Every structure is written in structure tokens, then in C-alpha cells.
Amino acid sequence: MAYLVRSAALTDYVKVARSVGIDPYRHLRDAGIDRSALLAPDTMIPAEAAGRLLEASAEAAGIEDLGLRMAETRQLSNLGPLGFVMQEQPTLRKALDSVSHYLRLQNEALHMRIEEAEGIVIIREDLLAGYAGSMRQAMQLVLGVLHRTLSTLLGAAWRPRTICFTHSAPASLAMYARVFGAPVLFRQDFDGLVCQAADLEVAIPAYDPVMAQQVRRYLDAMLAQSNATMSDKVRKLVITLLPSGTCSVDRVAQHLGVGRRTVYNRLAQHGDSYLAIVDGVREDLVKRYIDSDDRSLSEVATLVGFSSLSAFSRWFGSRFGCSVSKWRSRKGNVAAPQDSGTNASFGIGNAGGVPAVLAPSDLPADPDAVRAIALEQNRLARALWEQLESLKHQVMPPDRAQSGASSERLPGQAELLAAPPDLPPPAAPKVKRARHTRKIRPS
Questions:
Q1: How far apart are CA 200 and CA 158, in angstroms?
Q2: Whose CA is closest to 341, among 379, 310, 301?
Q3: Which of 267, 357, 366, 416 could make an S-S bridge to 323, C-beta 3.0–4.6 Å?
Q4: SS3 367
Q5: What is residue 114's three-state secondary structure?
């Protein structure tokens, strides 16, 4: 599906592009965006084209923070109707709820979700526009604008607890520190902002009930003309639930407040299906992660909802007609990322941390996946070896523990089970002999 975004999303693009030494209009032309769209902020342009523009411009300029540079000067007015509806709410919580409700009027490719637990709130942002390549700059812009908006409503002194990005850390964190002024974490499972739940109850001084009613009436009329279909709603939920491993049609139906059969029927009315949507989302995410990120195959498998590398490898081969290594070689990125092997839930370890025995049929055909499994097996074997070494030092006498076997010895040697010398040797077991009675025959 082609998603649209208000051209106001590119506010200050020309200024920032020139400041980093590139020609903004040439890149606009290459992305297929008419320069006149920048003069009319309410013009809707393809979200995918806007994302490609930001990534190509950052690469041409040799910088990693183009999105943050654009977000740094954003004002509430740049959000158009969303800016008005946020100001005309009694609290920040109500303002964010309104943004989530009307967000597609600003950006059809963006989905905002608010999660709360134990006094902590996660304001999560998901980009729906899937295309092969990085979305680093687009997500920088999204979270940078969100932070600027909350700072405007809560005051310049407000700071979130954490900013989370799914992309890897840049070479320099200077711009991140300048824009957010808060800890920033990278290679996380979601893109979003973490703050105190109490922050959402702060009153907004500009709240006017009469004006709020008029703004809502105006936005409701606009929203009625572009209601999201069931396919759009399901796609948003699939993107949210896949990394957690809890994505299922039952969970999606639960979030939508309907039954599983209702989801199937409404999708069928639009010529769609749940499995087709899941596969489509996975394809978009896999292209993004494999083509642009340095994530291991284990991480990619988890982020797209697979519990094992072999299952992911089979799905990839059936979907793309080749292995991951061949896909990367076609893209000019032959080198595979090193697998950190921190998760033993990919069918290569058991609950006790002991390497599982893999049959040849369990191994995927993809060489990269096999390499990742080997790295995980090696890590688990090393962990087991260290546990045995620790046990050896516990059961060996002190003098032998200090001068005995070196770290190069294999676990399981005889001294590992040797008894301490101050204990008496075990006594030989006593054998109870059977007593035979002599029978006396009668004479």
C-alpha cells in the first residue's frame, strides 16, 4: 500500500541540505518529489519517497544525523491540525490520545502506540512504509519532532527518561545529546520515548474547551473521508506485535475488540488475509534489516517473529527464492554480521543453557544461518566449560587448585572428580555371605 505524508514533514530540508553541502533540489528530483510541494505544507506526498530522500541526502553529505538536524528547529505549528488538537486538550495524556487518533491526517505511514506499566510510559513510533534500506533518518526526524513537541507542551526543563532507537549507534552522539538532552539507547526492540507516567497528567495551559470542540469537529470530518481499513489496522498491530513473539490473529482480534472470525471476514472483504499481511510486513522488515543494518541473523529472526533460525531461513528462501547470503551478495554486502548469540531461544539451546544436539535436518541451508548457529553453540559450550572449571576449583584441594590443571585443560579430567586428601578412602564394601545349614537325614 502507498502511504502519504504531508509535505510539512520536509520543513527546513532545503536549509539543512545546503548547510551540509549538497544540492537539495537535485535530491528532490531524484526522489520524485516536486519542489513545489515544499511551498504547500498540506500537499500529500509519498512517504516512501520522503524516506528515500532523507537517506540519500544523508549518504551524499556523509553524515548520520540529517533527521535530527531537521527536527531541531521544528515548531508545534509545523504539525498543522495535529498541533492545534494537542494544544486544545486538558492534559498531555489526552493530547497524545488525540494525536494517535488523528495521526493518519498528518502521516499515513506512522503509527503511534502508548504503553504503560508500573509508572513508566513508552510512546512508541512505528513506520509502516516498507522499502529495502535504512529508515534511520526518518525515525530520527519522527522522534526528534515528538521530543520537541512534548518539550513545548511541558516546558524546556522537561526531560524523558530514555530515547530508544532500533538502528545501531552512530560514530558521534553529539547531535543526539544536543537534541534530546537525555540518555539514548540503540539497537533496541522499538523506536520510541520513555517517560514517567506522571508526566502525562500535566495540565496544558492553553486548553480551551470551546476551541477544542471546534477542532475535534473539523478533524472528525477530515477523518471520516479517510477511515483506515481493516487491513491497515491489522498491519499496524502486526508491526507492533511481531518483535515480541506474541503476534497471532487472536491477539490482533483482541486489540481490535472483535473475534477472530470477524478479522478474517473483514480482511476477505478487501481481498486480503491475515497471513498475507504478516508475510508482507516480514518482507518489508527483513529488507530493511538485512540491507542496511549490522544485525545478526538471530536478531533479525526474532524481530520478524520467528523462534528459530531454521524456520526463518526456510521462510526467507520461499519468499525471496534464494538464501540470505545470496541476497546480500546481490546487494554488494557479502560480509555477514557477527552473531552475538545472546538468545538461546532459536532452537540451538535448551532451558539449562546446554548446547542442543542438532541433526543435519535441523540445520538451515543458508550459510549465514549455519554460521550464526555455530557461534551460538560455541558460546554455550564455552559457558558450560567455565561452569565445569568453577566446579573443579570447588572440589579440588587448595594446593592443586592453584598449581593444578591450567585453563587449557579440557573439563572432565580425572582430577575434577578426585576426593580431597584429608578424607579417608572409602571402605571396601562388606559382602554378606550366605549361611548354609546342614540338613540331617533321618536314619
A1: 12
A2: 379
A3: 366
A4: helix
A5: strand
In the chain, count H helices and then E strands.
18, 7
Taking the C-alpha atoms of residue 322 and residue 340, their distance in angstroms, rounded to an integer, is: 24
**230-380: CATH number:** 1.10.10.60
Average pLDDT, stretch 314-338? Answer: 73
Rg (CA), the chain: 30
Whether the full predicted model's pTM is greater than 0.70, yes or no, is no
**Cα gap 59→54, rounded to integer Å:** 9
Q: Convert the pLDDT of each residue in 378-397 to its tens digit.
A: 655 666 666 666 665 555 55
CB neighbour class for 188 (10 Å; exposed up to 12, middle 13-18, buried from 19): middle
C-alpha cell at 334: 557479502
What integer is the mean pLDDT of 28-55? 89
Residue ranges covered by each domain of the chain: 67-224, 230-380
Strands, E assignment, 73-144: 110-117, 120-127
**How far separated are the first and last CA of the chain, in Å rounded?**
112
Decide if 312 contacts 366 (C-beta within 8 A).
no
Say which residue the cell 506526498 belongs to.
Answer: 45
Q: Beta strand pairing status for 162-164 and 191-196?
A: antiparallel
Q: Tell me the pLDDT tens digit for each residue of 126-185.
A: 987 655 567 899 999 999 999 999 998 888 889 999 999 999 999 999 999 999 999 999
Task: Assess whether pLDDT exceeds 60 at residue 349.
Answer: no
Report CA torsion sign: 300, 306, 310, 316: negative
